[in-house]
Design a protein that fits this description.
Length: 139
């Protein structure tokens, strides 16, 4: 199935369905207040997680380590903030899942479990190089 169809047709339909069902249980004004409340709380935690990830990345840079997890974590926090801004309960649920570090690690593991396998035999341990003499003209 086309992913654009899922994003632009099915996701809003699911959000409207959930809003109607929850609105029928708690009332219309409470549903609107709940949507605003989840967005505000989610953005607060996204900001907090983003600052922590940025600090961790800077510490890794000072230690001459590549902050790959922090880069991926920062991107997922930005996606979580975007999902929390979009009004709806399903996108808020996905956004909150991306904000929790444990579930974020699970998502990374599921996404990259097949891509991390490396064939050890294909790696060569020799380094090719060339010596170039740099002689300047002496007067």
């Amino acid at each position: 199935m086309n992913p654009f169809f899922l994003i632009f047709i099915c996701l809003p339909a699911l959000e409207i369905y959930l809003m109607i069902k929850i609105g029928g249980q708690v009332g219309a004004l409470n549903t609107v207040a709940l949507i605003f409340l989840t967005a505000i709380i989610g953005l607060y935690f996204a900001k907090k997680q983003g600052v922590q990830t940025l600090r961790s990345g800077v510490i890794n840079l000072y230690q001459n380590k590549i902050p790959m997890y922090e880069v991926m974590s920062g991107a997922s926090i930005a996606l979580a903030a975007l999902l929390l801004i979009i009004p709806g309960f399903f996108t808020d649920f996905l956004g909150f899942l991306l904000l929790v570090p444990f579930t974020r690690k699970l998502f990374f593991y599921m996404a990259f479990k097949n891509k991390t396998k490396v064939n050890i035999k294909s790696q060569d341990k020799t380094i090719d190089g060339e010596i170039v003499e740099n002689k300047k003209d002496e007067f």
